[in-house]
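Bumping my old thread because nobody answered last time. Still need a sequence for this structure:
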């Protein structure tokens, strides 16, 4: 190795939690020139050396600072250490997979990478192999399963193929990165973070439990908050210190007042925050996955002071720690010693600098500028094809935006070309055969096939259309997911054109369009909203348009909070993301929809967000598939079994239900809870067959579709109903209303009831669904909607009216047949 200068190391393009910055400082002490180059400065406020001003999700080619940074790296760097499993040119949206590695390798620069969490955590692998995992609790899981998991695998493969060293700071990541090495966190300067003097007495003082999540669902924050609140309610001397959205420079004084940190209870390892708290001499609780501990050094495993707890054991673990203050102090001292031995940046730097020196030596030592220039010339000659592919990717992105912006012109051109067919087909269906055609889409809602069946009962030719499907169901007539995915991979700029071709086909094929408020056939306006261009063309061709609410597409924060103490926003973990939220946007949408729609439709709590909408209960139940099971009149000593199936536990009030069940069980009441989430619909309806009753939700104020499925199975249902006047056939409705304040008492009373009474309530539930939510019952309501609003030709109205009159909703037949 050359003696005339120090080797240069660049940490890029992210510095997650200060890990790269403090490691670079320690590498300087070992004879390296080490810097951090980042795409953008994060709001946490960790120090960096240079901000390249690219921005989150930005295009680096538009940043002059990035070009200067790249030039400095190409002509001066001996080592580039990438962080968060990415490189200078890696981008999911632009399909760049570490595109700069061949260039850096050609120049003679050694490259390393550290994977730090969701950059390499494969959700389907975690859910399949780990009983406790963060991916099952993550709202971004659908994004991972649709595209991001494949991107991560390609990033990992590129890193293993090109880089001199691949590391991971979390042991669970090593399952997905064959050949990678475990590298401890180095995010804390142990010389600056020292334990504060603490002469506070233990007796009588409340134990301060700190929890500081940056991403609640990944950290398992709901479990942590619930556990501490339950302990407080039970009289334990404890309080929760919840720290969120506070810059790093301001939180240390809060950390120093804490007695204990609960870090994360789902991932299987502790995070950088835990390292800082252990440096301050604070004990740490986090879930440690036993299988993962085999992937770290044996000596580190033996020294590990972190107290392991899962969501199920967290409460009792904390209870034991509250009562063992002396043990906590000893654990805090062990924690400080552990950080000094394993996480001090200077210790980690011993390992990284040795790896850097070895990699530089293998390449023949530091590369001079003249040699770098010659190698760059050869690179651009031999890798011209690679450069052309990168350029093609950029232009494909530009062509997509061009096609999207040209959308109105494309629709107009297609509509003009298709106009003769549109008018001819419309005339034939409405005036000759008197049989309109309808389409339901494109949001992949579970009820779409049944609504189309209800339309067919009225004599319509009805189909369903969806661009994607979820795990709940994929039973739609037209599913264009494969076509969209093919275009995404090969010709993404044709996606806007394809969607407009589908719209032109739909104009020819259908007379009635049923959409939800969030999206039609063309790309939506904003996060939620049918395209106004689409609405205009539907009106121009005389199509009937009906818009329906499903919840998140219309719920706004201001109007929701005005509903009362308990509402959908009470525990929302992502305001502005989970629902529409913005009242102004909601008002603009409603104004636009009212202008173009034949009729706005809504029901239940959603009526509060859809002024002028017609109240129509449009959730049909397939009674032929949901057979009556009922409740056993004799329990045989078996506990009362409650079933709960939340897709979004924050909205359903699941924590209140669990707390109530735990409280009743602690009192000796024979009761148990079966919870299922994130599984196909047929699994849900199968699991509910073994229960005695179902709890739907305790916050929203209106029942969901699961409640109707449960009643169809003959199960009593508990659900918070804010206004019973919103129920169809309210006097006959057997739903038992309960909110977080009353759920414990309601369950107590139900547990004390004879099972024969619950069985009778289940029979009434089945009868209620047969009477009001069968496909034929919904078809009758749709028929009334058409007759009163669609303004069909008289022959069509007469045909619909005749079929509607012929439909009979028998409220008893199915139950009596099952019992017979």
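Sorry it took so long. Here it is:
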């Amino acid at each position: 190795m050359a003696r005339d200068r120090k080797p240069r190391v660049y940490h890029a393009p992210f510095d997650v939690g200060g890990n790269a910055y403090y490691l670079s400082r320690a590498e300087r002490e070992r004879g390296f020139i080490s810097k951090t180059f980042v795409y953008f400065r994060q709001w946490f406020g960790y120090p960096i050396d240079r901000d390249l001003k690219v921005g989150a999700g930005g295009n680096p080619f538009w940043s002059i600072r990035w070009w200067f940074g790249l030039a400095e790296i190409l002509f001066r760097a001996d080592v580039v250490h990438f962080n968060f499993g990415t490189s200078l040119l890696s981008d999911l949206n632009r399909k760049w997979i570490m595109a700069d590695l061949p260039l850096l390798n050609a120049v003679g620069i050694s490259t390393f990478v550290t994977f730090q969490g969701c950059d390499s955590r494969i959700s389907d692998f975690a859910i399949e192999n780990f009983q406790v995992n963060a991916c099952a609790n993550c709202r971004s899981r659908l994004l991972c399963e649709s595209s991001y998991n494949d991107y991560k695998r390609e990033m990992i493969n590129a890193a293993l193929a090109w880089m001199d060293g691949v590391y991971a700071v979390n042991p669970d990541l090593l399952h997905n990165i064959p050949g990678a090495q475990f590298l401890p966190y180095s995010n804390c300067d142990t010389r600056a973070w020292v334990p504060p003097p603490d002469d506070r007495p233990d007796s009588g003082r409340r134990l301060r439990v700190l929890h500081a999540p940056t991403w609640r669902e990944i950290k398992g924050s709901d479990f942590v908050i619930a556990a501490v609140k339950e302990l407080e309610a039970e009289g334990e001397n404890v309080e929760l210190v919840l720290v969120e959205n506070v810059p790093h420079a301001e939180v240390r004084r809060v950390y120093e007042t804490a007695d204990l940190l609960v870090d994360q209870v789902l991932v299987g390892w502790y995070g950088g925050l835990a390292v800082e708290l252990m440096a301050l001499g604070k004990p740490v609780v986090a879930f440690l996955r036993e299988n993962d501990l085999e992937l770290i050094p044996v000596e580190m495993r033996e020294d590990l002071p972190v107290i392991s707890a899962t969501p199920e054991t967290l409460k009792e673990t904390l209870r034991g720690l509250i009562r063992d203050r002396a043990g906590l102090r000893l654990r805090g001292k062990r924690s400080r010693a552990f950080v000094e031995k394993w996480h001090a940046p200077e210790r980690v730097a011993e390992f990284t600098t040795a790896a850097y020196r070895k990699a530089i030596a293998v390449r023949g030592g530091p590369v001079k500028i003249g040699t770098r220039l010659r190698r760059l010339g050869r690179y651009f000659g031999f890798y011209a094809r690679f450069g052309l592919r990168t350029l093609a990717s950029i232009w494909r992105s530009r062509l997509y935006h061009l096609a999207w912006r040209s959308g109105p012109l494309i629709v107009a051109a297609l509509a003009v070309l298709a106009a003769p067919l549109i008018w001819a087909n419309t005339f034939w269906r409405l005036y000759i055969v008197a049989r309109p055609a309808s389409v339901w889409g494109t949001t992949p809602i579970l009820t779409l096939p049944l609504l189309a069946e209800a339309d067919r009962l009225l004599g319509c030719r009805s189909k369903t259309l969806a661009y994607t499907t979820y795990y709940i169901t994929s039973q739609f007539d037209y599913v264009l997911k494969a076509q969209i995915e093919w275009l995404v991979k090969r010709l993404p700029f044709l996606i806007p054109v394809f969607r407009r071709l589908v719209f032109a086909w739909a104009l020819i094929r259908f007379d009635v369009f049923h959409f939800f408020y969030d999206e039609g056939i063309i790309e939506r306006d904003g996060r939620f909203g049918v395209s106004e261009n689409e609405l205009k063309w539907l009106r121009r061709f005389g199509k009937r348009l009906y818009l329906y609410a499903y919840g998140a597409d219309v719920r706004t924060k201001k109007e929701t909070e005005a509903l009362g103490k308990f509402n959908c926003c009470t525990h929302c973990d992502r305001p502005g993301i989970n629902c529409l939220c913005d009242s102004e946007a909601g008002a603009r949408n409603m104004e636009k929809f009212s202008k173009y729609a034949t009729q706005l439709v809504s029901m239940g709590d959603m009526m509060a967000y859809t002024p002028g909408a017609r109240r129509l209960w449009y959730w049909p139940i397939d009674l032929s598939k949901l057979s009556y099971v009922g409740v056993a009149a004799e329990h045989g000593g078996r506990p009362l079994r409650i079933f709960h199936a939340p897709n979004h536990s924050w909205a359903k009030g699941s924590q209140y239900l669990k707390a109530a069940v735990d409280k009743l069980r602690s009192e000796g009441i024979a009761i148990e809870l079966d919870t299922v989430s994130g599984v196909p619909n047929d699994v849900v309806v199968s699991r509910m067959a073994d229960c005695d009753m179902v709890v739907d939700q305790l916050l929203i104020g209106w029942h969901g579709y699961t409640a109707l499925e449960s009643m169809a199975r003959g199960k009593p249902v508990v659900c918070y109903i804010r206004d019973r006047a919103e129920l169809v056939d309210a006097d006959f409705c057997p739903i038992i209303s309960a909110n977080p304040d009353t759920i414990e008492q309601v369950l107590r009373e139900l547990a004390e009831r004879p099972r024969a009474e619950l069985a009778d309530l289940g029979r009434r539930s089945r009868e209620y669904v047969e009477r009001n939510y069968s496909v034929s019952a919904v078809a009758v309501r749709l028929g009334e909607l058409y007759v009163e609003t669609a303004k069909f030709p008289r022959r069509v109205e007469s045909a619909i009216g005749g079929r509607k009159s012929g439909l009979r909703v028998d409220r008893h037949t199915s139950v009596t047949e099952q019992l017979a």
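The CA atoms of residues 457 and 779 lie 7 Å apart. Let me know if any region looks off to you.
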